[in-house]
């Protein structure tokens, strides 16, 4: 998990134009490339969501009243860190272009 965060920290969080031909090179089909990137983006999103929930659970306090909301600076810093990460499709597209994603085709039997 920390590997994803370390890769993502070096990426520009802004959307960048991509050369479609680079995406097509690996699969010979733009739709397959986009499908692979989107599936990887969902995996990354799920992993990051699980990780942030686990970290924020440490700060959870069960109270009976709504007025007793407390601000925790560490919790705010953790949330800001994850907000600054690039979107998961940006991370997945970079992994795809760097040949860091493995995929396989499955045979469907009817």
Classification by helices and strands:
mainly alpha
Overall mean pLDDT stands at 81
* Rg over alpha carbons: 18 Å
SSE order, one letter for each helix or strand:
HHHHH
Q: What percent of residues are in strands?
A: under 5%
Runs with pLDDT <50, length 5+?
none
Number of strands: 0
Give the % helix.
55-70%
Shape: elongated
Helical run tally: 5
The main β sheet shows up as:
none
> Termini separation (Å)?
37 Å
Structural notes for this entry:
Helix 3 packs antiparallel against helix 4 and helix 3 packs across helix 5. The protein is an all-alpha fold. Helix content is 60%, strand content 0%. The longest helix has 28 residues. The chain has a domain of 63 residues. The termini are far apart. The relative contact order is 0.19.
Provide key terms for this protein.
mainly alpha
Summarize the structure.
The protein is mostly helical and 110 residues long.
List the helices and strands and how they pair.
Blueprint: H1 2-9, H2 20-27, H3 30-57, H4 73-84, H5 88-97
Helix pairs in contact: 2-3, 3-4, 3-5
């Amino acid at each position: 998990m920390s590997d994803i965060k370390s890769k993502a920290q070096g990426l520009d969080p802004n959307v960048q134009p991509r050369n479609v031909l680079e995406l097509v090179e690996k699969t010979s089909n733009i739709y397959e490339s986009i499908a692979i990137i989107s599936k990887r983006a969902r995996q990354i999103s799920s992993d990051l969501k699980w990780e942030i929930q686990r970290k924020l659970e440490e700060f959870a306090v069960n109270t009976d009243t709504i007025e007793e909301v407390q601000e925790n600076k560490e919790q705010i810093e953790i949330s800001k860190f994850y907000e600054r990460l690039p979107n998961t499709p940006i991370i997945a597209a970079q992994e795809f272009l760097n040949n860091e994603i493995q995929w396989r085709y499955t045979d469907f039997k009817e």
